[in-house]
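Reviewer 2 asked us to include a model.

Predict the structure of this chain.
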Amino acid sequence: MAADEERRLSATELKKPPASPASGPASGASDMAHIVLTFDNNRLASALYGQFDENLARLEQKLGVDIRSRGNQLTIKGSSSAAEQARRALDNLYGILQKGADIGQSDVDGAVRMAIAADDQLTLPTLERKGKMAAAQIATRKRTIYARSTNQDAYMRALERAELVFGIGPAGTGKTYLAVAHAAMLLERGMVERIVLSRPAVEAGERLGFLPGDMKEKVDPYLRPLYDALYDMMPADKVERAITAEVIEIAPLAFMRGRTLAHCAVILDEAQNTTPMQMKMFLTRLGEGSRMIVTGDPTQIDLPPNTKSGLVEALRILDGVPGAVPVRFNDTDVVRHPLVAEIVKAYDRDAKMARGLGTGED
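Predicted model (structure tokens):
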């Protein structure tokens, strides 16, 4: 660990100007820091900075620091906490580049979120000091995904250790994408034999029978987000062959009854649109050597009026059950366009006002 850091940052120093006796504790001068980073690879340093230093500008905007570049050297000035957060974010991003991946603005935003969260992070029983722990990742031959928020980090770690994981939260938080990515990784490593994808077609209702094609063609539009994630993690020809060989299986929820799903990764998406009976039926399909991931957003229930959501009921009933791990996302975890997070917040505020809750929490 120390050797890697030495190769990556050949010179790092933290300087705090001495406090002036006349300034007193209220001035905050002693809280200012000056950090110098020197990178050993000019090409990666250029990619880290971004075109016209756009990544550095984004870090400045997010953290309120001043970052100046000169060749492969960066100077960070700001409050001690903000400057250290910027250093962590840059270290994280440079590490991603060293592994051969590209970075964009969403990666910068994710690195900032993780750097800020590191201040409150509990030290795990590892050799890494607080604030230096690596973000969770999902890696396949085609690409590697890194956690971009603390809840994503918790979700990815839960997927590694638990047999049943619930990912609950608004659109754009990555709960479905990460579930499919994790399933693809398990398949590639031979830890499961199949991937089973399921999703209730509540939106179509009785109109499903009037759509052209066989059952797979009828439900494919509702499974498109799952397909998109698969194609991101696996070569297209491999996905097609796996679907043809039923190594990747599309299983409408209604057709799951009576089955035992063993040695596979099973994903139920849009689970808020299941009834309690459907959810119980699905959860009891879990077989030996399998992993089950249930994703959904309880604020977007499309069931008929006065019909309870199977997802909401399952979270209540399974609370405290060993092996069933719920991970809750919120608007701060949205990793799509920044406007998506604001849209989620606006709808949440409107829903709370409609229920007479003002700005109080759920």
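The two ends are 43 Å apart (CA to CA). The CA atoms of residues 136 and 193 lie 24 Å apart. We have added this to the supplementary material.
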